[in-house]
Every structure is written in structure tokens, then in C-alpha cells.
Design brief:
Radius of gyration: 13 Å
Strand order of the largest sheet: 3-4-2-1-5
Number of strands: 5
Shape: globular
Order of helices and strands: HEEEEEH
Helix content: 25-40%
Largest sheet: 5 strands, antiparallel
């Protein structure tokens, strides 16, 4: 993903949402992916850029993983505060931030 880091995406989402980006899980070692938890079905509405990986199956909770440039995969930690019941990352906002990050890198 050309150096786009999940931590940077999370930082931008937090700025755009007054510190409430929704539920995010980070790997604290290893490849250090950052997982953005979306409402069921929302990830299918977007064409995710190369490097951002869509996880989940129809009718189940879904998430988008964004890897760190290098590292391992375990353990996990929260990337934002504890979510409230029914709270998810805004898929459209996440998609926009990812696309903006990619455009900035390719310039």
C-alpha cells in the first residue's frame, strides 16, 4: 500500500470524528495491521484500494485491514476507545481517507 499506515488512517479518522472514529483494533507487534470494524454489508459498497483488505462474509460483521509496512501479527490492542453497542466505523469516511492518503503518496 505504498507506505500508507493504518495508524495514520486512524489518526485522520479520529480528527474527522472528534475523537470517535468507531471500533478499531490494532496488532501491537508483527505486521501491525489496523482493523476498522464496519456495519454488516457496508464494505461491499466500496472499491477498496490495493493494500486495504476487506474481511468478513455476507450478513456478518465486517472489517477493513490496513497493514503497517513491516512486522508480525500479535497481540492485539484497541485503536480507539471502547465502542458503544451498534457503533461502527463510517465506511464512506474510511474509504475517503484511504483514497486521500493514496493520492498524496502517488503525487
Amino acid at each position: 500500500m505504498c507506505g500508507v499506515r493504518g495508524e495514520a488512517v486512524l489518526h485522520h479518522l479520529a480528527e474527522l470524528t472528534d475523537g470517535r472514529p468507531g471500533p478499531v483494533v490494532r496488532e501491537t507487534s508483527g505486521r501491525r495491521w489496523t482493523y476498522f470494524l464496519l456495519a454488516p454489508g457496508e464494505s461491499a459498497e466500496h472499491d477498496w484500494p490495493p493494500g486495504a483488505r476487506r474481511f468478513g462474509r455476507s450478513g456478518q460483521d465486517e472489517y477493513i485491514g490496513v497493514p503497517a509496512p513491516d512486522g508480525n501479527t500479535y497481540p492485539l490492542g484497541r485503536g480507539s476507545g471502547a465502542p458503544e453497542a451498534g457503533e461502527f466505523v463510517d465506511a464512506e469516511l474510511l474509504h475517503g481517507v484511504l483514497m486521500a492518503q493514496l493520492c498524496r503518496i502517488s503525487e
